Structures are given as C-alpha cells and as structure tokens.
Amino acid sequence: MTKASDVMRSNLVAARGGTTVREVISRLLIGNFNGLPVIDGNLKVIGIVTAVDVLRAIRQGRNLDTTSASEIMTRNPVVVKHDTELNEIIDIILQKAIILVPVIDEERRLIGVVGRLDILQRDIIEKFITIGDRKV
Length: 136
Prior knowledge:
Blueprint: H1 4-7, E1 15-16, H2 21-31, E2 35-39, E3 45-50, H3 51-59, H4 69-72, E4 74-75, E5 80-81, H5 86-96, E6 100-104, E7 110-115, H6 116-121
Parallel strand pairs: 1-2, 5-6
Antiparallel strand pairs: 2-3, 3-4, 6-7
C-alpha cells in the first residue's frame, strides 16, 4: 500500500499566520504553487492559504500589504499522518475539493504536503519535452 510518506513533498514552503498576502502571492508565483500551509511557531498547521483565497482578498479590495495569511486562510484544514494510505488521501481531496493535504507527525507538526500533482506524478515516466522558454 502506498502511503502519504511515499508521495509527499517534504521540501516545502509554509507561511506563518502573520505573513502578508503580498508575500504569499510572491511565494505562490516563485514556487509555482496553488496553495501553502500556514503554521504557528511550533510548526503546527493552523490553516491553508490558496490562490483562490488571494483572489477573493483582491476582489474584496483588501490591502495586500496589511492583510495577513491568517485573515484569509482556511482554518483547521484536513491533515493526514505520514502513514495514511494514498486512497484515503485521494478520497479526502475529491470529497473536499481541495488541492493539497498537509502531512503531520505525532506532535501534529508539519512534515510534508501531498498535492494533486504529487499523486499524479507518482507513476509517471516523462515522455514529453519542453521546447523554448516559458514567458512569465
């Protein structure tokens, strides 16, 4: 059985609650992410902030330099442990219509994330090539 630890990304970026929305945007763009876990000082997951949350803040006319991640994040997100089976994670992603699931240890500290693409890339052998530069 494939487990969260088999597909999770452990080299990851997380935001703190006080991170500004503008800083979140920068990390989303630099890392080509759709969302980031938000952690407290003990590395415990307190939320997730996604590109949709940022778009909502922009639409509401919020000040991106003074609004924090904790103000726009989804609180108390679903989390899984490293030994959670992959099928259970897929069920969570499908049922909740979410893009990523934080992976925690026994002390509830963030140790990784499993995103939709992590699951899709699991058994893929690259058969495509990229030609030219991507315009940003």
